[in-house]
Amino acid sequence: MSEAGPHGAIPVIDLKPFATGADAQSPAARATAARLDVALRDVGFLTVVGHGVSTEVRQAFFDMIRLFFGQPEEQKQEIAISNSPYHRGYGGFAAETLEGAIGAQDEDTVGAFLAGDMKETLDFAVDHALDHPEVVAGTPLHGPNQYPDIPGFREVWETYRAAVTEAAVRMQRALAVALGLDAEFFISQPGETMYHLRMIHYPPMDRLTPEPGQMGCGAHTDYGTLTVLADDGIGGLQVRQRNGEWTDVTVPEGHLVVNLGDLMAIWTNGRWVSNPHRVVNPPNQDRYSSPLFVTPPYHLRIEALESCLADGEEPTHEPLISGEYLVGRFDGTHSYRNEMLEQHNSAAQPSHRI
């Protein structure tokens, strides 16, 4: 296994040329986009600077993450994700099984591994009022969030969410320019882009009793177009490159990690890769992280872009609907949505307690 530092296999990209209000077609932006295209043909992971998330905003957010997960289990369960029709809320240990959830460029093996991940999570998305048209229409995954009863939590969450969403928008502009598209291509698709912001706690492995092959987060690909991840610098994230080698992702201070998901691999017909990745719990300390998952509007048809097809080349993947794909992934990996996983992980739950 190799380790990728700032100048290793995981490239570093400056997103400042793609900030809101900047000229995304400037020479600096085009040069950055060209570097980005080369990097993503080899590995769908990179670290970014110039993302717009300040140290202060990030620190306040991670303080809230630690505060939430430090609560007693019964308090966290008051906003359990299983209580939400919209897939928002707290997921306990072993409640999600990501090992083998490999899509897009590999054979889909969702559900082949039963043991849940050794982590706990808190999931949010765009906070829709009950009179929002998509909520009224019954569109899955659209609705209000569940927030913990912690003073100041929502204000800190909203500040961070706005900042990290801007980082995701910058990245989407960079990706569009790298493909020779209008900078607003991904942002301006009809409908509302789905942004799912998650908090994660990985307890130390020495406080766990894992099943064989069980780890903090099993090997999987992400589902949407891209993910923007902040972590606490503890380490543990590993990515599988196209040659099959697992690489430790080192995140320098102040950087965010960006990786591509299945829908971007489909959109680009495999030109860019959705790398499998996993998390190994650290041995003696807690690990905290927060990914923002970006998925195109729910009803959007995803198929290979013409600019990513050579003359006479056929698309590698069949077209699909963005939201339907996302729901299918959730159904295959979350115990509360999957009876087979629920039966297994409920029976095994006592050995997962910390």
State the gist of this model:
With 354 residues, this protein is α+β, with helices and mostly antiparallel strands.
Shape: globular
CATH homologous superfamily annotation: B-lactam Antibiotic, Isopenicillin N Synthase, Chain
Distance between the termini: 29 Å
| Number of helical elements | 8
Q: Sheet bearing the most strands, described?
A: 8 strands, mixed
Category by helix and strand content: alpha+beta
User: Averaging pLDDT over every residue, what do you get?
Assistant: 88
Please trace the helix and strand order, writing H or E for each element. EEHEHHEEHHEEEEEEHEEEEHH
| Total strands | 15
Number of domains: 1
Radius of gyration: 19 Å
Strand order of the largest sheet: 2-3-11-8-13-6-5-4
Strand fraction:
15-25%
